Amino acid sequence: MFEFAEKNHTIEKDGKHTLYQYIPEGDEQRKEIAVKRGYTQTKWGEVVSVMDIQDRPKVQLPAGFSIKTGLEVTNVEQGLAHAKAFGYIDEEKYTTRSKVGYGVMRNIPDYRADLDLLVLSLPKV
Fold it and tell me: What value does the mean pLDDT of the chain take?
């Protein structure tokens, strides 16, 4: 995983190639590998929330928004939505990577397009 990410997903920052890798709490094996490869821990963290999809409450979205599944959008649309949501829509290198990444993700054996949910805004006309 580290080798692939170092080759394909580094960010150039201050003249150096940088890679941020989230390692879940308690994953000591991955932490050990990271240290051996010269990584240092940062203060950055990530919040993970889980909700049983069968118990999903009915939601009323504001006008102009809709919930779609991976079955209803293309990998290009999904990549652009991700780029817009996370603020890199104007960075062609990353929007291209995102569109390709979602295309690859759809070929992963355990990917479930029916469980891949997106909230999208409708284009203004």
Answer: 84
